[in-house]
Structures are given as structure tokens and as C-alpha cells.
């Protein structure tokens, strides 16, 4: 049996199309015609020997074989891009101060730091995990080079909106700890200490729906929030990013719908140094993969 050698340009088209949710958008981003993209996908399916895409509404989602290929494709492209970055930035040195919310502190920060360190081992990163308000204060004061924050009413001179994430009601995964929420008693709410964007969204949604609520637990840390919800003290509102396995999204029609929450990346300088630019690229790429993973789970 002859070995398959995948074309990385073809693989990049496939991965980009899945991550953007549209192969027409992928064609535009990669500077190719839609017919050229179709030909590349056909070549990839011929190599795999089975369908890698299936129709879902007006879009396309990966098949079981496509999901396997997607995972390996991302790894191949990541290694390729790391090699290219390492060759171009072989003498890259410096110090970067990065701020990030707790939601992204476990898996995403690990992925970002790992990729960056492998490509640029001589650049030192100082990471600060903090609440939204603190990160905005630090980037405004020039004490961070990059800061990832949930969108708030505060703006900075050099920021970019990355994407929106759905907010959800979160409860314990343990059926014995799951409560039935009725209008007879105030909803027990677990939340960050004020001010908190998601706490405000939760209470506003409950007020608009005329649902009584009470703060059953407050915490200055996300780990405290997760622990209280897992213990059955109440529900909270977060995105699905970094959601622990012992918690789950609540699909309860008695609870009001929640809006999406934007995520932005702030830079201290309009034209940062090359090391900062490279770290920004890795953050954006990693978040795109995370968002795609959440979409696939929802599908």
C-alpha cells in the first residue's frame, strides 16, 4: 500500500474553510478562486478515499473522517508554521507582558505559550491572569504589551475585536445536585464579585423575564465560581470556554436567553515589536481553533 503525502497548501484550504465556516471565505482569505478550492477538496477526498465533508444547512461540516483529518491537518500546519517562524525569527529576543482572563488560563494559555516557546525560545513571556477590569487598567497604564479581554464599555486606542462567544447558564453535571428552578423561589445565582460583565448580563436577563433571583455565592476567582456551582449552591453564567467536565450547560426553557459576549485583543502600541506581533498571531489562531471546537460540539 503506497503512502499518502498530503499537500500542505491543500490541507490549509481544508482547515481554513472549516474554521471560517465557509469555503468561499477560505478562497477569499487564501487568494484562490472557488473553483480552485473545490479542486483542492476533491483531491483531498481522493487521497483519503472517503468523504471528508457533509452538508449541514447551508454550510458544510466535517464527516468522521474529516474530523480526524482536521485534527492532524492542524498539527501539520502548526508544525509547518512554527518551522517557518523559527527560521525567520531565529534571532528573535525580548520580553513580552501578556494579560489574559481566567477563562483562557488553563488550556488556551498552555497552547499559546507552548507554540510560542518552541518557535522563539529566547523570548521571555510574563503572563498575568486577572479579571477584566484589572487587565484593561494594566494595558491602559502601559504595563502590558497584549491583553485579551471580554468586551466592555471601556475602549483602548489599539484593540481589535476577535469574535463573539455565546453565554450560557451553567450548572452541575451531577444529576443529584441539579436543581429544578421554579418561579416560586428566587433563583440562586453564583457570580463574581461586582463589577462583572457576565453577572450583569445574568441579572439583567432575569429582571427582564421577571424571574426573582438571589446571590447565593460570590467569589473573586473563577475556580471559586466553578467549585460553588459544582457543589450545587446555584447556577452561574459563563461561556463554554474552559468549562470543566463536572459542570454542564443548562438547557432549561424556564431560564431566559442570554446574549453573546465579544472578545477583544488590546495592544499597548500601534506597531508593536516583531515578537509581540508573532504572539498576537498565535493567540488569534489558537482562539479560532477553540471556537471551531465549540461549534463542532454544539453541532
UniProtKB/TrEMBL annotation:
Q: Which GO terms describe its molecular function?
A: DNA binding; DNA-binding transcription factor activity
UniProt cross-references to Pfam families, sorted A to Z: HTH_1, LysR_substrate
Q: Which PROSITE patterns match?
A: HTH_LYSR
Task: Read off the InterPro entries from this record.
Answer: LTTR, LysR_HTH_N, LysR_subst-bd, WH-like_DNA-bd_sf, WH_DNA-bd_sf
Query: Which residues are in the HTH lysR-type domain?
Result: 6-63
| Alphabetic keyword roster | DNA-binding, Transcription, Transcription regulation
**PANTHER family hit by this protein:** HTH-TYPE TRANSCRIPTIONAL REGULATOR LRHA-RELATED, TRANSCRIPTIONAL REGULATOR
What is stated as this protein's family in its record?
Belongs to the LysR transcriptional regulatory family.
Instruction: Tell me the protein's name.
Output: Transcriptional regulator
What is the originating organism of this protein?
Answer: Undibacterium pigrum
